Amino acid sequence: MSQHPEPLIEVRNLSKQYVHRRALSRANTVVDAMVDVGLKIARGSTVAIVGASGSGKSTLARCIALLERPTRGEIIFGGRNLLQLSRRELFPIRRRIQLIFQDPTSALDPRLSAVELIAEPLLIQRIATSEERLAKAREAMERLGLPAASESKHPLEFSGGQRQRIAIARALVLEPALLILDEALSSLDLANQESILSLLVELQRAYGLTYLHISHDLRSVSEFADEIAVMHAGRIVEQKRAVELFANAEHASTQELVAALRTVEAICTDRRTRGLA
Q1: How far is the CA of 87 from the CAs of 83, 84, 223, in angstroms?
Q2: Pairing verdict, β 97-100 and 178-182
Q3: Which strands form 7-21's sheet, in the order they lie side by side?
Q4: Of 164, 172, 240, which Cα lies nearest the Cα of 208?
Q5: Among 12, 101, 182, 249, fewest CB within 10 Å belongs to which?
Q6: What are the start-end ranges of the H helices in the chain?
Q7: What is the spatial distance between Cα 240 and Cα 258, in angstroms, rounded to a whole number?
């Protein structure tokens, strides 16, 4: 990566407020889920957002993916502020930014087969003919390591790791520039996590993909991300290259995450030494 790589996407002063009406009261409660977040993601790089539950990570992911509208701020993509564009102008851009959810089961229509699920985004975007869409879906299945013989199976006939591969294939079939993984590995066992992380690295090298990886688990992103940003109470409180973050964690939230990871690593090392794992 060059010293000053070109940003694929830049977030400026992004904030999101939710207004909740109190029961038996006319007063509303305003909750700041995200406050003045700034973030640049270099083309072809991986940036991880880590933090405790409720820190604003998923809100940021949904806003960048245009599933929620921020209260204020800018999202610059391709030199344009996406928040100033009309729905018609955003339609072709949405395929360039894809979001992978934590639970693939809830994101996949159980009535459709695997190949139909993967081809569906092309249908929604009105891309190619029916035959071409199915051909692209089959190519994506092969790319994601899904057996061709399983194309007619439905989501509940697959394992959790395979369902997540289907969800990733659905996103990749649109040839996105940015792939957002919102806790996309947290529901999988360690073996599946490592397998899919390895696959994502291969796909990034092959297709120049850019990743925004949302996670509460510092361990899972420590070897995968070029940069790690730590969120706390709706703000990014620290952002550094992964190696620098571990060597010199400055904010208290970052120090707690690093300390917890090192404690877990020490316990695992001790168990292996004693032949318990």
Answers
A1: 10, 10, 38
A2: parallel
A3: 28-42, 7-21, 72-77, 80-81
A4: 172
A5: 12
A6: 57-64, 87-94, 104-107, 114-124, 130-143, 160-172, 190-207, 218-222, 242-247, 252-273
A7: 13
Of 224, 202, 108, 194, residue with least CA distance to 158: 108
Place of tokens 């060059």: 2
- What is the C-alpha to C-alpha distance for residues 49 and 62, in angstroms, rounded to an integer? 13
What's the angle, vertex CA 125, arms to CA 123 and CA 130, rounded to 5? Answer: 25
Q: Assign 214 to helix, strand or coil.
A: strand
The three-class DSSP label of residue 127 is coil
Beta bridge partners of 238: 230
pLDDT digits (tens, 9 = 90+) for 79-118: 999 999 999 999 999 999 999 988 888 889 999 999 999 9
Quick one: tokens of 182? Answer: 């919102």
Helices (H) and strands (E) in the chain, counts: 10, 10
The CA-atom distances, in angstroms, between 71 and each of 17, 31, 52, 85 are 6, 12, 22, 15
CB 80 within 8 Å of CB 86: no
| CA pair distance 86, 93, nearest whole angstrom | 11
Q: What distance separates the 2 farthest-apart alpha carbons in the chain?
A: 62
Predicted model pTM: 0.87
Distances (CA, A) of 17 to 21, 23, 30, 215: 13, 19, 7, 22
21 burial type by CB count under 10 A (0-12 exposed, 13-18 middle, 19+ buried):
exposed
Q: Could you tell me the two tokens for 39?
A: 């973030």
The size of the chain, in residues, is 277
Q: What is the tens place of the pLDDT at every residue in 225-258?
A: 999 999 999 999 999 998 898 888 899 888 888 8
